[in-house]
Amino acid sequence: MAKYRIGEIAAKCAISERTIRYYEEEGLISSQRSAGGHRWYRDEDIVYIKRILELKELGFSLAEIRRIIELKAEDESGNKRRAELLSQYRQKLSADVRRVEALQAHIDELEWHIHQLEKAEDGFTSCPGALCVSCSYKARCIFFRAPGDLQQ
Asked: pTM (2 decimals)?
């Protein structure tokens, strides 16, 4: 089994030694100590660090990551960890889908306003008038008037 000093594992994982020490303080990884007190890490620690970085990229907090890592002690088979990860992934996916939908609604609204302003005569206070009948946004436009409708 390979052993790595803190500088070596930092280089392999493309993170700082300070980050590795922090992860160790937070209980996310552990090191072995040499007789001289130097930290040594194993290949398994590289996997853990890369998994931590991956989960952080996906929006997991360090507390959520720690909980997932701690599940190893409760269930050596990995089934609890797998179930928890699946649950967390699904929750984050659902939240992200809601954010994308909200962002798309915002984009649609901005596109409508751009379209409306480009067609209006003075760009702000007037309705594009005759173009409203064929406008694809007329169902949501507060300015739309059907032909012959005198109300504004």
From this structure: 0.70
Nearest to 114 by CA among 139, 100, 135: 135
Q: Which domains does the chain have, with CATH numbers?
A: 1-58 (1.10.1660.10)
Tokens 């005759």 locate to 130
- DSSP reduced 3-state for 11: helix
What's the Cα-to-Cα distance from 33 to each of 2, 41, 121, 141, rounded to whole Å?
Answer: 14, 9, 76, 69
Per-residue pLDDT of the chain (152 residues; tens, 9 = 90+): 789 999 999 999 999 999 999 999 999 999 988 888 888 999 999 999 999 999 999 999 999 999 999 998 898 898 999 999 999 999 999 999 999 999 999 999 898 878 777 776 665 666 656 666 677 767 777 766 666 665 54
Q: b/e map of 115-131 (b: 16 or more CB within 10 Å)?
A: bbeebbeeeeeebbeee
Q: Which residues pair with 39 in a beta bridge?
A: 33
